[in-house]
Amino acid sequence: MSLPDGVERRRVDGRERLATRGEPVYGEPTDGPWRLWDAGRSKLGATLELGLDTGLTGGESVLYLGAASGTTVSHVADFAGPTYAVEFAPRPARDLVDVAASRPNLFPLLKDARRPETYAHVVESDLDALVQDVATRGQARVAARNRRFLAPDGRLLAAIKARSEDVTRDPASVFEDVLADLRAHYEILETARLDRHHDDHLVVVASPREE
Ligand SMILES: C[S@@+](CC[C@H](N)C(=O)[O-])C[C@H]1O[C@@H](n2cnc3c(N)ncnc32)[C@H](O)[C@@H]1O
């Protein structure tokens, strides 16, 4: 699998690490103009490290749900085109605004990802990628509701957190249920557990079904 243009492997301290070019955000080490992308702090970073075929090539339009204070979405904005970043908690959203100051293609939105109608007037349609990392119950429902923004050949890249659905259940059976719900709206292309970097998370690569 090739990395998106704008994402490189840099050898730092004898280790190959993913990196993008941009202003540092979370105290990550730098290598000249490159900022290292910590897979332990980013499910999308872990997904790229695992070598999944994300469909990301660089320069794409992205809707990112669950942006928090911008750790991962800052890397996305470094290599992507227009990047709409939805976060509903005001505190991290304030940090996100600072992260966007040096990234003119990053648009922070203080919105609830369960209510896409509240940002549909801002976010363009026919997007190339929907990246989802929302710690909430009903993650399949969030992906279904935001499917409207994706181009027919776009990609959903969703990190599903089992504990957000049900802390008491076995993660594997939670993932089965979430995948069953997702299949109503998406064709699942690939899945992988992210446990090496993120406990009880499943990443899902999917394409939207015709509706
Ligand atoms: C695991 S954190 C995201 C980390 C971030 N994606 C990163 O890698 O830098 C999950 C985020 O989802 C946000 N969140 C949960 N439910 C949400 C919702 N309904 N709408 C928007 N954001 C939501 C939380 O406030 C939290 O910041």
Automatic annotation (TrEMBL):
Residues 1-32 are annotated as: Disordered. SUPFAM superfamilies: S-adenosyl-L-methionine-dependent methyltransferases. The keyword Transferase applies. S-adenosyl-L-methionine binds at residues 71-72, 87-88, 112-113, 133-136. Signal peptide: none annotated. Residues 1-20 have a biased composition (Basic and acidic residues). Its EC number is 2.1.1.-. GO terms for molecular function: histone H2AQ104 methyltransferase activity; RNA binding; rRNA methyltransferase activity. The keyword Cell inner membrane does not apply. It comes from the Archaea. PANTHER family: FIBRILLARIN, RRNA 2-O-METHYLTRANSFERASE FIBRILLARIN. Interacts with nop5. Component of box C/D small ribonucleoprotein (sRNP) particles that contain rpl7ae, FlpA and nop5, plus a guide RNA. This is Fibrillarin-like rRNA/tRNA 2'-O-methyltransferase. It comes from Haloplanus rallus.
